[in-house]
Amino acid sequence: MTQPSQRLSDAGSRYAAARESLRERARPHLGIDPRALGAFRIAVALVLLADLLIYRLPAVRTFYTDDGVLPRSTLAEVYPLLERASLYAMSGSARVQTGLLAVAAVAAVCLLVGYRTRAAAGLSALLFASLYARNPYVLNGGNTVLVAFLFLSLFLPLDARWSLGAGRRSGGEDEERRTDADGGASAGGGDAGDPRICSLGTAVTLLTLVSIYAANAVSKYRSDSWMSGTAVPRIFQLGEFTVGLGPLVSEYTAALTATNWLWIALLSVSPLLVVATERHRTALALAFISAHLGMAATMRLAVFPFVMSSILLLFLPPGAWDRVEAVASRLSEATGLAETDRPHRSDGGTDARTPSPTPSRTRRGIRAGAAALLVGFFLALVWWQAAGVGLVDLPAQESTGQLSEVSWSFFAPNPPDASGWYVVAGTLESGDTIDLRDGGAVSYDRPPDAAETYPSTLWHQFGFRMKNAAESQYRPVASYACERSDRDLESVTVFHVEQPVDATGPVGEPDAEERVRVAC
Prior knowledge:
- The protein has helices at about 5-30, 35-55, 60-65, 70-80, 80-85, 95-115, 115-135, 140-150, 170-180, 200-220, 225, 230-235, 245-250, 255-270, 270-275, 280-300, 305-310, 320-335, 360-390, 400-405, 455-465, 470-485; strands spanning about 420-430, 435, 490-500, 505, 510-520.
- By secondary structure, it is an alpha+beta fold.
- Mean pLDDT is about 85; it is low at about 170-180, about 185, about 340-355 and about 395-405.
């Protein structure tokens, strides 16, 4: 007669065999090559550093202190939850903000080199989420996507390749800890023929990006402008967005119309990113990367194109990375930098020992909790995106314009139909009025280059999101202009100017609306 303990053991063995069989079937679709994980870690860290050093640090006093355009009192009035949640809202001084940015930069560097990778990713997620919460007017969907994938990276072995931590990740006890934290990622490392890591963490990460593209496709199918082929040509008539090659490209309406349909087609086949394998998957991932880099070359979108391109590296299969390493090896040999004494390891550079077949109750609890957190996070994101494109209803108190402000639909369902810019007029003590941007006469005519009316990308983001704000939110902006001007001003008046556009250019006359007038 079979003993109960033996029956339990047999059931456990059958469950383990079924789980391993499922993992083997899913690996080509939901697995990630260790080299892709290393490249993703490096790319994301570089994006974090660029966001800090190029955009945030030079403008810390303007956008993140009480002396700037969004003091904490105004943030608390408009977004009380964000004001309470942000670490950067603890103080309104530039010194504290700069110190927090320095800590964020150190965490990003640790992530870049793979030192204490999970701690660095977690600290980066916390600090960047707090930074974006401190001033939600100077971000776009790319920033929120970045924070979401920083969180998901906590469930991935990002130090699998090209990291300082790769050499430490060996030994039975450390391997078991990684297996628990990654939700079984290490146990799914594959064989010599397929080095991909397959786990719940890798599956949720890949499916999250596909869900973003799929929701984007749905929103465009529900849009008259996208489905008529006029959305992209109209977007390129928004002068405040077009930079680099954008003004040149905006003259070719037929090419932009074709781009409109190509982008919809690419979004429509985005599920193939997990369905397709090998060469087809490589081609599709590279097509998306090319599209995003094209956006970066023509439009002012901050880190968004680079965030998306970094995530797409996770989809490149082993064959693509084999070719990358082969090219890198030839270049190293040509430059005399080849490392002949380091053996190639396609399994992530670790001497993984088999985890204990009988994990403790604590480890099982940690693994179950991590799995529940991942699944809950993914379902919440899918629901939020479905709400953003109108597939599900939000509670009445939630159905405000705030959802669209941080939506991941990107110029959908309908892109702006008017180009906008600001005129900040200063009244001198003599009674004369000047444009504070260039000191000339005040004019509301469409500028030759609307992008130049914004001093920086953050100013553009701030102005774009503030265009429908209340007078109380504009008051700190006018006060900031008073304090920063080298003229003897009696008052400052902020105007928002809009001019309708269609696929071929501006339509009608600019319309200037006074937003606030403040005595200096």
